[in-house]
Amino acid sequence: MESEQWNHDELSAEIDAMCRSKAEEFRLLGYEYVTAKDIWDCISRNYAKEGTPPLHKLVNDIYSLKANSYMNYLTIAAYRGLN
């Protein structure tokens, strides 16, 4: 079976769709103001030193993000003045 090749625009669109899906999940849990950009900022903070991970890890990081981890990220970002 051939490996599917993704161009940058297709990959960005898919990542954005995953982040929007996760943001919608958080809104259903009562976190009304979460956006796809917020999810991406939370997830991508880990990639600053390591670089972008393989696609399967990226997908797993987005879909396995828990509300508690996201709230911890927001708290630390507020203390650091990143928000």
UniProtKB/TrEMBL annotation:
<dbReference type="InterPro" id="IPR025716">
    <property type="entry name" value="Post-transcriptional_regulator"/>
</dbReference>
<protein>
    <recommendedName>
        <fullName>Post-transcriptional regulator</fullName>
    </recommendedName>
</protein>
<dbReference type="Pfam" id="PF13797">
    <property type="entry name" value="Post_transc_reg"/>
</dbReference>
